[in-house]
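Contributing: when you submit paired examples, paste them exactly as shown. First protein:
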Amino acid sequence: MTFLDMLGAAERQNQSLLCVGLDPDPAKFPAHLRGDASRIYDFCAAIVEATADTVIAFKPQIAYFAAHRAEDQLERLMAHMRAVAPQVPVILDAKRGDIGSTAEQYAIEAFERYGADAVTLSPFMGFDSVQPYLKYEGKGAFLLCRTSNPGGDDLQNQRLATVDGQPLLYEHVARLAQGPWNLNGQLGLVVGATYPAEIERVRELAPTLPLLIPGVGAQGGDAVATVRAGYRRQGDATTGPVIVNSSRAILYASSGDDFAAAARSEALRTRNVLEAARG
């Protein structure tokens, strides 16, 4: 199955638009694991097992593993997710962006070493920095477009002088991803839940692309506004998929021994809010 096939199947099977972000910070772990970076796998595996039937995707953030020399634990976790939740696609949140020859190595890392179904990328260096990922048939690549952080305005909201007028930079990225860059139908876009008006604009420019939307939960994004701005369907079929990510609010729903059960409760609550919003 391609990434898009997996995404659609997980949405239908789990009745969910929720993505659980795996951003393990040992300093925030429950008391019996706190501060122990060697237990990153144990913590994340418990979250995965507790939420596997509630999500459309999982999204491990590579920096939270690499900072603690826990890449081997990430490899184990990727294998564990494939074993216990084979129906759920995994998006490696790496935000890579480099020249083509280096991008080839990062693509090997994402898709061969870790076995991810999709990866997040920075498109700032242009199409040749994205193209190596598209050589992996059926894999997905999400380009940063309108991100949830306030500093995104510094570049993403700047106007360009193009033959098509003066689009904002994030609008230009959306057009490229929907059009000439999307050679094999593998691209999606990252848009932040903290900017629902911009989500709606991105959806206008990229009506069929999957949107990965972080910022719901601890960052304060409005789940209902997010879905209404970005989700599209025709009849019973999803035509504009959205993947709404929540990380800290789910991972750290409890600091006690019941952390996995609390994570499941928060995931179910968020999933239900998102489902109600799409109607």
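Second protein:
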Amino acid sequence: MITISMDDCQGGVTAPKGFRAAGMYCGIRKVKKDIAMIVSEVPATSAGVFTLNKTQAACVLVDKIQLKRSPVCSAVVVNSGNANACTGERGLNDTWEMVKTTAQALSLPEEQVMVSSTGVIGQYMPMDKVVPAIAELAANLSTSGNGDTAEAIMTTDTFPKEAAVHFTLGKKVVTIGGVAKGSGMIAPNMATMLAFITTDVAISGELLSKALRAANNRSFNRISVDGDMSTNDMVLVMANGLAGNVPLTENSEEYQLFGAALEYVLIKLAKMIAKDGEGATKLIEIMVKGAISEEEAAQAARAVANSNLVKTAIHGADANWGRILAAVGYSGIDFNPDNVEISFGELPILKKNYEIVLDEVKAKELLLKDSVVIVVDLNQGSQFARFWTCDLTKDYVHINASYRS
């Protein structure tokens, strides 16, 4: 694994050179900010990954077309409160109107504009509110608009999610920034939330897409709150090259460093989403090690993360290791249960051949904390994978029983 020296910094999506943003209230939601815009001062190489749900929102369908039409993107407009999903031809037309209105407001070619939406499914977009808001956003873009943007894309999130890092490529200091939203309808398999990543690195579209897929697989594809996959999920990346580095080439050390930094930012945002799961009180990290392959380790960790029995046990600070081993057992990987060892962080719980070494008092102390680490050692290889989830609480039911109200 490559190591890289990075400095966390402020600014989110406007931390890299040449990016501005804005967020505001326009009336899609009842009271909260609900529409935002992220813009690069110069056309930026773009890449995206999208939900695998067969039911896809209008913005997902339109953005896939836009990525094929143009290798660059200069602007993203995103709203909360309305998913514009399952809205048929009218929903598609409304999304294209958002593209056109944004392009006109910024004097851009239409193919350089992307759209994203999140919120309630099956409702038409209030275009009488959205269209004038787009013009206002365009007039108020700034390098300090990242905070308003982070707030404007939230739905049931309880806090805004931003991250940014500086690092060096060659002799140039470069930056990656990001913003994300997600709290419910979070399950692995791309991407089950919204995330927008900006960078001033010079990189081709092909390499940017490759780096995004790799980083996404180890971040947003490894979080789960409730096992539900949304209709609107996407991760979009814009790279405008204003850092002035020599364009990255495949297999170079600089490309590997960029990939490591991108993965770091995405994991940081992904963990915020898992921590902010609807009604959650604990962030749970599942580490499966000693696997034959990283894929099998991730498969086993995913099963544990999606287990409601595990999640409720952790919520109640119950060291019920049997639920963890059972989840690994139905994950579909080939392993010998006799060889499995389980611990909570550094505290051993189960040794090989089902030797129970559980200290109930110490285990409860660990499980009462707001961050819990479950380690499962399969003892059959050298590969590992991490997964992040949260506990399952009564508040999750309350939030989702009244989501539309």
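If you have annotations for the second protein, write them as plain sentences, like these:
The CA atoms of residues 85 and 102 lie 20 Å apart.
The two ends are 47 Å apart (CA to CA).
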